Amino acid sequence: MKLSRLLVPLALAAASFAMATQASAADKFRIGYLRVMDDAQAITAYEGGLYKNHGLDVQLVEFQSGTDLIKAIVGGQLDTGVLGFTNAVSWASKGADLKVVGGAQRGYHALVVRDDSGINKVSDLKGHTLASQKEGSTADVVLKGVVLKDAGLAPTDLTILGVSPQVAVQSLVGKRVDAAFLFEPQATIAKLVAPTKQIYEIGEVWPFPCMVVITSGKTLQNRKADVWKSLDAQRDAIAMLQNKPEEAAKLIAPYFIANPTLKTLQHGDVPRDQVILTAIKSQTFSAELTAKDQSRMQEIANIMQASGSLKTRDGSHFNVQQIVDLDWQNARKL
C-alpha cells in the first residue's frame, strides 16, 4: 500500500511535467529555413537575438529542401518558413491553405562554369552537364523557363542534375559537371575552391522575389501577432545585413562553413567571415513585396502552368493574389 501511495503522486507529477513540457514546446514559434544565403535574415534574426527582442521564443528548424519545408508548414509542424515562392504555388494549387506574408531575397542565382568547359555564355551549355536544384524548385523553374529559354535552349539540350547546392559545388570540384546554377554562398565558395568563373546571374537581368516568408492560413489566424513579430525581427535582420554586413557575417558564417577558414585555390586559407561577407554583399534582401515583385510572382506561376508543373484542380488560371497577404507590410508602411 505504501508503495502504491507513493507511486500515484509520482505518476501525477510525471504527467504534469510532460504536459508542461508539451505546452512549452507548443509556445515556441517554429521557423523553417534552408542553409542558403537567401535565408540569411532568418538565421541572423535568431543568432542576433532579434526574435527575442520582439518577445518571440523561436525554434529554428533546418530543412534540406523547400519541398520538405513546405510539407512541414502544411502539416502543422512549422509556423512559418523562408523558402521559394514556387513551393507555395504548387501546394496552394492542390488546395493547401497557404499565405505569402513577406519578402526575403530577390533572385540571386549564378551560373558558374568550369574554366576548362568551353562555356562562355548560356547558349554554350548545349550538350553539357549542369547541376541545379530539384525539379519543381524555384531555381529549376527560372532556369528552364527564363535562363535557358532566353538563350534559345530547351531543357533537353543539356543534362540537368537536381542536387543540393553543396553537392553541386562538390560536383564542380570533382569534374562531374561542367556548370552549376547556384545560390549564395555556394556560388562564392565554388569560385574560390574550383577553377571556375561566373558567366550569368539572373538577378541582374530578370530580378524576382526568389525567397518569401510563407505560413499557413491556420497559423495566420491563430498566431497572427507572433507571425508579425517574426516578420518584424526578420526586417531588423535585413537592416543588419544591409548596414552592418561584417557583424552579420560573423553571426551566420558557421552555418555555411564549418572550419574557421576556407582553403582556396589562389588565396590560401581565407577566413570564413570574409567569404560570407562577400556572399552577403551580392544579395538584395527585402522584407517588402512590391507591385513589381507580385507581377514577377504571377509570371513564375504562369511559367509553371504553361509547362504543366502547376495544375489547378478545376483547370483554371492560377491567380497568385489568392495566397498573398500584405497586411503586415501595409501596417508597417513598407
Overall mean pLDDT score? Answer: 92
Coarse structural class: alpha/beta
Oligomeric nature of the chains: single chain
Largest sheet: 5 strands, mixed
Q: How much β-strand is present in the residues?
A: 15-25%
Total number of helical segments?
A: 15
How are the strands ordered across the major sheet?
Answer: 2-1-3-10-4
The count of β-strands is 12
Helix content: 40-55%
Low-confidence stretches: 1-24
Give the C-alpha Rg: 22 Å
**Cα shape:** globular
In sequence order, what are the helices and strands, one letter per element?
HEHHEHEHEEEHEHEHEHEHHHEEHHH
How far the N terminus sits from the C terminus, by CA atoms, comes to 68 Å
Describe the overall structure.
By secondary structure, the protein is an alpha/beta fold. Helix content is 48%, strand content 19%. The chain is built from 15 helices and twelve strands. The strands form three sheets. Strands 2-1-3-10-4 form a five-stranded mixed sheet, with helices on both faces. Helix 6 links the parallel strand 6 (129-132) and strand 7 (159-162). Helix 2 packs across helix 11 (224-243), helix 11 (224-243) packs across helix 12 and helix 12 (245-256) packs across helix 13. The longest helix has 26 residues, at 2-27. The chain starts with a helix and ends with a helix.
